[in-house]
Amino acid sequence: MMRVSESNTTEEHGPGRPASNHAAFAQVARGYYAPIVALFTATLIISNICATKGVEFLGDHSVSLGPLQILPIATDGAFFLFPLAYILGDVLSEVYGFRATRRAVYYGFAALLLTVACFAIAIRLPAAGFYENQEAFRTVLGTTPRLVIAGLAGYFVGQLLNSATLVLIKERTKEKYLWARLIGSTIVGEFADTLIFCSIAAAAIGIDTWQQFVNYVIVGFLWKTIVEILVLPITYRVIAFLKKREPTYAPMQIAPLQA
């Protein structure tokens, strides 16, 4: 009778697993990486939706400096949120390294693709007779292929460059000069992201002159970089908090881009 009981236990709970009266579940890895990646991904999705709206400040004024248009200021509807994605990318790179950040970028890339696919399906579904907002729904969520490509390309290249730059600087400076790698990586990543996105998406959001384009790129780049500098005290505290509470935080024995 004992052998039958052991056999039943093995079949029910699996080899090497203790018998229990409760249901079986896998353990979720503890730490702060998962919630940061979730916020990082959500920020990217929301930003790329908001970016479909063209925004103009001081539209009643016209100031130019040679070929550069100073006023009005042209940007997109995600200007206030998108810097957060790079701040979170900096936190991930500084605390968890390039490989972990690259994995988060892949997650965000996949989530953006899924978002675009779901929007495309929802737009093409037959609208109910009582639903009167089909065209508005299509206008807001039916991002053009150009905007989709712009957002994905800019995000993918910019975030990877941001992370790679930060960890390479950290390899030389170790725990010193955090401000230098945060700002330096942002300059590289944000410039690449802004230039790629604006080059592809400008016409899609209504920017049709060279002056507006240059203004769009410069304003976007300067704004995101300035925000990064202004929130450095907060970024410092978040990074310090995570480093103290992540038990595996320690010097690595491999190259920074492999860590």
Automatic annotation (TrEMBL):
Subcellular location: Cell membrane
Topology term for the membrane: Multi-pass membrane protein
Pfam family name, one: Vut_1
Keywords for this protein: Cell membrane, Membrane, Transmembrane, Transmembrane helix, Transport
Keyword Transmembrane annotated: yes
InterPro entries named in the record: YhhQ (IPR003744)
Membrane spanning stretches: 32-49, 69-92, 104-127, 147-169, 181-207, 213-236
PANTHER family: QUEUOSINE PRECURSOR TRANSPORTER-RELATED
Annotated function: Involved in the import of queuosine (Q) precursors, required for Q precursor salvage.
Sequence similarity: Belongs to the vitamin uptake transporter (VUT/ECF) (TC 2.A.88) family. Q precursor transporter subfamily.
Protein name: Probable queuosine precursor transporter
Protein species of origin: Nocardia amamiensis
Taxonomic lineage of the native organism: Bacteria, Bacillati, Actinomycetota, Actinomycetes, Mycobacteriales
